[in-house]
Model the fold of this input.
Amino acid sequence: MSFLNDIFASLERADQSTVLAEIRDGRTVNTRARELLAQVSRARSFLAQRSLKKGDRCALYANNGVRWVAMDLAAMAEGLIVVPLYARQAPAELVAMMKDCSPALVCCGDAVLRDGIAKEWSEVPPQALFDDIFATPFSETSAPISQPQLSDADPVTIIYTSGTSGEAKGVILTAGNIGHMLACVNSRLNLLMAGATGQDRVFHYLPFVFAGSWMLLMTSLLRGSLLTMNTDLTKIAQDMRTVAPDYFLNVPALLERMRRAVDEQLWQAGGIVQGIYSRAKAAWTRKHESKSKAFDRIWLSLADSAIFPTIRKKMIGRSLRALICGSAPLSIETQLFFMMLGIPVLQSYGLTETTAICTLDDPRGYEPGRVGPAITGIEMKLGESEEIIVRGPNIFPGYWNRPAETAKALRNGWFHSGDQGEVDAKGNWRIVGRIKNLIILGSGHNIAPEPIEEKILGQLPGASQVVLVGNGKGYLSAIITGSVNASQAQIAVDTVNPQFPHYKQVRVFHLRSEPFSIENGLLTANGKLKRDLIALQMRTEIEAMYGPKGQDQGRPVDRQSLAAS
Done:
């Protein structure tokens, strides 16, 4: 029995219960388990007529939706290897991925997506639109689908990595990888939902093409949860309140924006509410640092009775048990902010190569700033240069058609993550940064940029990104994007610098109003900085920060002021 058999069995038991929902144009469209199975049957029938062989690749190019889920399940059940493609990614990048994996069929959500691929690739493989695949009307008497035949070693998906410093690689995941991870995540969610009755209510906005997002989808189907999909990213806040979820998966960027929005709204409101809130925040920080003062308990009590409940209700409703956060380290300030409001934030760490997850906070007790202990059956330890290395049944068998890259990542049974980390006596891990992101100054000092960037960004509500540079140079400089002026940046850098030794202090900064984004090619599909490309595209600005006018005896200098002098 594979994980897919278990999911189909769960859907059969759920029968007339709603398991998926889409929020479109303010309306919630529900799909019952029986309806989803019928959709899967239609898609399997379509695929069976295409003379496809087990192990053929099937590219899935569409936005989140019920039909995406049905197509994914159907293709795996037919023995195909699903290659999910991100609908927001540049067609040229997607074509490179498809040329790499040679799909026998490309299933497109709509004609616009299909035509975008065709313009980039004249020899595109056969394509099919969802409208054609799911054309058969639904029938309550649809026959049950046959059982899929998958062994643990069978590949079920190829998920392309983000490609922060080069060409994306296809990560092969097997039925065994998925089965183990589903059992682990399900067990941890059982702890979170202890004492609850009925379905889990799950809100979902992250694209299913990402490993962690897809694992939550599969876990929800296995658990018989009600997973409601946001289809308009501009309405996430509104949809969150509509769904009133028990939990949902997040990336740090959204939680950071939520925190800043609350701070800005209360600051603009002013008055006694803002005064109590500011004092309560300061008191909460001191409490975490074990530096509480005499009246801190009073300010926290006032805020907890008069202000925090209103923020919680306006932000995400009353029923939320926890926010789950992954994909990148979350700043401890943001995690503490939500804890202050009475909202637990459980962190997870993992890579696509580890079937999305290596660690996950235990809801019964977790430490802010860390990402929890290794999950059941997985070993983690530190290798050279404090690199996190992992082994266990969650580790991928290799990259598609890249034996040299596979051999580099998998050595002596251990997967080398490329992440720097540390672990405490309780087994809780903290992620320091990416080894390949290390900045090596001319002095020989090795610096992980992420903690410093995070600190500066936390001081700049209008900033979108802070990116440190300085490889081979005499000091660190920073590129700051977003709505920030020189004075604000100066204050932020001056505030953060004393927290670090001299070689980790930022000497110069450059302001850029346009943020790095997926659209301008400087962020990966899942929002990570393409540091090498940023350095290449902005080499003139970076070199200017190290020219004669960029050196001013240790005080940060705005690039605009350099040009004027």
In short: DSSP finds 20 helices and 25 strands in the chain.
